[in-house]
Amino acid sequence: MIPSPASDILAISGLRFAYGDIVAIDGVDLVVPPGRIGLVGANGAGKTTLLKILLGVRPPAAGTISVLGHDLGHGAIEVRSRVGWMPEGECLPPDQTAADFLGYAAELGGLPPRAARQRASDVLGLVGLHEERFRFIGEFSTGMKQRAKLAQAIVHDPELVLLDEPTAGLDPEGREEMLDLVTRLEDFGINAVISSHVLTDIERTCDWVIMLDGGKVLRSGPLSDLSTMDEAELEVIGDLEAVAAAARRLGAEVRVHGVALVISQTGGAAFDTARDAVIAADAAIRRLGPRRTTLEDVFLEAGAVDG
After folding, report:
1. Which residues on adjacent β-strands are paired with residue 17?
2. DSSP string covering 253-289, please?
3. Residues of the domain holding 260
4. Is the per-residue pLDDT at 152 higher than 80?
5. Which of 31-40, 79-88, 169-178, 261-270 has the lowest mean pLDDT?
6. What radius of gyration, in Å, describes the C-alpha atoms of the chain?
7. Is 67's pLDDT higher than 90?
8. SS3 category, 16
9. pTM of this prediction exceeds 0.90
10. What does the alpha-carbon distance between residue 95 and residue 221 come to, in Å, rounded to a whole number?
């Protein structure tokens, strides 16, 4: 793997981890720049395992890992002091108030007691829990608990937070509020790795995407490269296969999408190619319009190719 510059938040080479005979992470190589990073894959793809390895909670069977420029194998404590963690499951003490718990978390992060209390108040306000800060966490709704978990992940002002399914269990309104909060982290200089199986959440918040399947990396790269290519979607009056063949002869990639053809070509020439292919096949255009490739399309295509 090419050595990564110091600015990369993650650099991973040959990473492997197994639960007994079950391989959860299998030969992962990654170099990831700063920003909001989406970690996507189906349940069981290895997302949570990878996050726990990055925290130093689970030692890998093989491979090297650098987090924020620090070798995890020799500086796990240094890494943890600069990283926040929002787990998916229940982890909050029900018999403590949000203010007490956040203050305690801030002290664990190294702040003196008075500064920790002030920091806790500020962060609870940031996530929309200022009015509820003296309520017991056990009385919180699911949405409030998720925001409290995010608050404890950032209360010590980390450089990077690892968020495991941050919108889990939320209704549509709560989901939007959480995604807005995640998007705002960059304003405070906090990088984020967001693990989710909901691909639309990743499209909404992230600028880089890592696709995992069966513990392997299917794709890794800027979201703009993976999922925002404009294509032409075409329905014709005439022989659909003949139009498809003509488009391929013109150098385009063509796939069938229901009763339509999706035509993509470098250089922004998809629409011109669609027109020329229809003419060459002696057909007529029923409908022609743009089609934006979604992250789901890319994930399914990558899985089909690698599978």
Report:
1. 25
2. EEEEETTEEEEE-GGG-HHHHHHHHHHHTT-EEEEEE
3. 229-306
4. yes
5. 261-270
6. 23
7. yes
8. strand
9. no
10. 43
